[in-house]
Amino acid sequence: MNTELKKELEEVREEIERLEKKDNDASMSALYLSQLYYRICPIDWDYSCEATLIKGIHHGPDIAQRINVDSSQHSRCFVGDYLWSLVPTTW
């Protein structure tokens, strides 16, 4: 094999390793964020419901509370405010 091809092959290998590391870092970052969100506001989402429904169970510090909001009946701002209101403010 000539040296030019060897050099190109090595560059491709390095690029593959770099991309695999980047993908792994992104996966770890997404996993960390999802665990962090769950620790802050533990909600078990119901993914089997209709697309306009937001359903699940919020496991608050005192009691579990059902979530059942029809997003077609409320603004995105209302839904966001409602979900943030479930986060306890005492640490």
From TrEMBL:
GO CC field: Ndc80 complex; nucleus
Residue intervals passing through the bilayer: none
Stored InterPro entries: Ndc80_Spc24
UniProtKB keywords: Cell cycle, Cell division, Centromere, Chromosome, Coiled coil, Kinetochore, Mitosis, Nucleus
Pfam (any one): Spc24
UniProt similarity note: Belongs to the SPC24 family.
Protein name per the record: Kinetochore protein Spc24
Species of provenance: Eublepharis macularius
Taxonomic lineage from the root: Eukaryota, Metazoa, Chordata, Craniata, Vertebrata
Gene: LOC129346535
